[in-house]
Design a protein that fits this description.
The two termini are 25 Å apart. This protein is α+β, with helices and mostly antiparallel strands and 237 residues long. The strands form 3 sheets. Strands 7, 8, 9, 10, 11, 12, 13, 14 and 15 form a 9-stranded mixed beta sheet that branches. Strands 3-2-5-6 form a 4-stranded antiparallel beta sheet. The protein has 7 helices and 15 strands. It is elongated and about 70 Å long. Helix 1 packs across helix 2. It folds into 3 domains: 55 residues, RNA-binding S4 domain (Structural Genomics Hypothetical 15.5 Kd Protein In mrcA-pckA Intergenic Region, Chain A, Roll), CATH 3.10.290.10; 86 residues, 2-Layer Sandwich (Alpha-Beta Plaits); 82 residues, Alpha-Beta Plaits. A hairpin with a 2-residue loop joins strand 5 and strand 6. Helix content is 22%, strand content 28%.
Length: 237
Amino acid sequence: MIRLDKYLADMGVGTRQEVKKLIRKGLVEIDGVRVLKPDEKVAKGLQTVSVDGIPIFYREYEYYLLNKPKGVVSATEDAKDRTVIDLIVSKRRKDLFPVGRLDKDTEGLLLITNDGAMAHRLLSPKKHVDKTYYAEVAGCATRETVQAFAEGVDIGSEGGEEWTLPARLEVLESGTTSRIRLTIQEGKYHQVKRMFRAVGMEVLYLKRESMGSLVLDEAMQPGEYRELTEKELELLQ
């Protein structure tokens, strides 16, 4: 059971104060019966709530697959830049957040949800969830680079050592600029860029392709998003 005003506020109808006004104006019904009390209790999923004749279905969790574009920050709010949450224009919940972060200039897969338990499972280093990236880097990636990443590299600074867990590096094309695919199971700050910097290379372009069982939908252009399919959600859970 949930208060009627919270039900409507959770579903993005308005703020708690705004939905209270709608209720007191007689614009809200529960199972076809007009309700005038904001604290009226509603059984989620068992009763039908409508506002001005439009049904409002309650959703406790929302899950969106976003192809994050460059120039957008992985945050819930920002005073200067557009955030990944701003891109989800069809959202109902106001408590959505990105699962992990991608740098401002990094593209690719980002899961947006309000399911904290799922986020913890995907981000916890103890869960060993694979995160795969495609990158173009300045420098020649070699067998030695692959071996170094497989053993772990020191991405620390003058403050001390900071070794990564073993990572899987696939060299797609080696040359002055190399094309690679990298799979890691961590999410340290600027980790991919720092890993290549540790072996004398510089990341020019970076895109996350997958996270656990969730794979970027190549049909989606940067900035586009969609809700997860039932199959995707089942695999993640």
